[in-house]
Amino acid sequence: MKISNPFFKKKKNIYLHDIFQSLNVKPAYKNQKIDGINDLSNSSKNEISFFNSLKYQNELKVTKSKYIITHVKYKKLLDSNFSPIYVENILKSVANITYLFYPNSLDDLVDFSVSNPKKHLFKNTKFGKNVLIGKSVKIGKKTCIGHNSIIESNVIIGDGTEIGNNVLIKNSIIGNNVKIQDGAVIGKNGFGFFPNQKKNKRYPHVGIVIIGDHSEIGCNNTIDRGSISNTIIGSNTFIDNQVHIAHNVKIGNNCIITGQVGFAGSSKMGNNVQVGGQSGISGHVKIGNNVKIGGGSGVIKNIPDNSNVMGYPSKDLRNFLKENK
User: Fold this and answer.
1) CATH number of the 119-323 domain
2) pTM exceeding the 0.85 threshold for the entire prediction
3) Catalytic residue numbers, as ranges
4) Residues near 65 by Cβ (< 8 Å), separated by ≥ 6?
5) CB burial readout 202-226, b (16+ within 10 A) else e
6) What average pLDDT score do residues 259-265 get?
């Protein structure tokens, strides 16, 4: 899903040779204007993208992007339609280019523009005590926001949505009739950085969080915004308390996720999936539709549609029960 990002201002006049310069790489192609940086699935013709894992070969086949940041070890996978930019460290290079387009992407720790809501602008919203609202926030009809909650600038909230106490929402688009329970934090930057003994370098996060209609977010959940793509929670998906959803995670419609589950970055889950408590989903894995994952499981590889799994590493439920009689 590609949605125009209202949260971070993008520099417009970035050219291909600017990108080569930021990467400390000799220009290899004719100079031209580049509109932005995006993942393979959502890139347009005039955007730059990146390929850093064999897991994304299918996305590479359908991307519209011509200029691909990658490593020379993937050279054989890029045909003549691409103009590859070879670098030693792909993700560091992507971070540098993201900074180039979004120089203020790390400056959102605190939104100091928030203030008491001007109730004449939100006539159909019920506010608790000590609520703070940022600039250009849009709130739908018949909504309720509980005590001590903060809605930072540019957030969009649909009709009929109920937000509990002590909730923080930033960099997010919330659908209609969503329930967000007490203590949830939605839209903060993800846990992405490059380790260094002197000073770790943060990875910029310019994606957003999108929550579909009729979903429920439990108490003390943390949902990180995407790094370049968006973090997405589908419609009618119910998430229990104390669940962590990392950057770029995609969760489908009609899913049930019970307490203390953790989703690592860029994992994807289909529709009608049930996840038992205290399970862990590793990064970049894909879980199909109609999957059931037993409590305490560790998912470290892709799971096909209609599977029932359990254990660590997760395996077919029947095999797990036989082995653990």
Assistant:
1) 2.160.10.10
2) yes
3) 247
4) 38, 40, 43, 44, 45, 47, 48, 49
5) bbbbbbbbbbbbbbbbbbebbbbbb
6) 97
